[in-house]
Design goal:
This protein is of the alpha/beta class. It is built from eight helices and ten strands.
Length: 263
């Protein structure tokens, strides 16, 4: 028995795999106060653009953009919680469950191979903590930040475990860029923070600008003026990895307000 249980629909199954190429669209996480108070809170409306969600159940490099046998229902096995969490018809609530788990610290038990299944939570905290100038905030204060921003993923469809090894076909799918532009037009962010080089290169290629060597570009999406910022992935370390002070300097350049843990 794996840590997660999945239900495979009886309909739409071919050869034991449920096919839904070009249909997976992750719903963005929109803070409740984003539209009304996002600019008051951070000085700008901010969207965070991650690379993808990752699914341990799908090992093929093409990820679930090609096919997936784990479709629709997701069980989170934690102490004190037995009710299922639903990904939805085509896993469109994947991001919602990820952020719900993060905000409520719903952790899973350690694996028998010694790997920590909750390491991604530290990556999230490392990034969100970096909006604060005077130390690390409490969970409550950090969640207030999440209430004022939009978080979404670029690749529409979960990738295999090792994102850097996933296929170019998955990253360069037209649906990814079309959905990104759609979300920008809908939520009208002033600043989009792009995690990592993979998405930055692809978005710049699509727009037709040179992204190499740049950390900020000002672009227009049908009249919606946006500052695109790129940062090393928050899971990265070392001289070329994510660094809090460098990130804060970049936020200041983009006129995003830094926060205090005391608010």
């Amino acid at each position: 028995m794996t840590r997660h249980e999945w239900q495979i629909p009886r309909s739409g199954v071919a050869g034991g795999r449920t096919l839904f190429r070009n249909k997976v669209v992750f719903k963005p996480i929109v803070g409740m106060s984003y539209m009304a108070h996002g600019r008051d809170y951070l000085g700008k409306r901010v969207m965070v653009l991650g690379t993808s969600n990752y699914c341990e159940h799908y090992k093929d490099e093409k990820g679930c953009g090609e096919a997936c046998a784990h479709y629709g229902k997701y069980y989170l096995h934690v102490v004190g919680r037995k009710d299922p969490l639903y990904f939805g018809a085509r896993c469109e609530k994947f991001s919602e469950i990820v952020y719900m788990r993060y905000c409520n610290r719903l952790k899973e038990p350690k694996l028998t191979d010694g790997k920590d299944p909750n390491a991604w939570m530290r990556t999230f905290s490392r990034f969100f903590n970096s909006f604060f100038v005077d130390g690390n905030p409490s969970d409550k204060v950090r969640n207030q930040l999440l209430d004022h921003i939009v978080c979404t993923e670029y690749v529409q469809g979960a990738e295999a475990d090792k994102g850097s090894k996933n296929s170019k076909e998955l990253m360069e799918s037209d649906r990814n860029y079309h959905e990104f532009v759609k979300q920008v037009k809908l939520w009208k962010p002033d600043v989009v923070i792009v995690w990592g080089k993979r998405v930055w290169r692809e978005v710049c290629r699509r727009i037709g600008i040179v992204g190499k060597g740049a950390v900020m570009k000002e672009v227009s999406f049908d009249g919606c003026l946006v500052k695109l910022l790129t940062i090393p992935h928050p899971s990265s370390y070392g001289s070329t990895g994510f660094q809090r002070k460098e990130f804060q300097r970049l936020l200041k350049r983009a006129e995003v307000k830094l926060l205090s843990t005391r608010k």
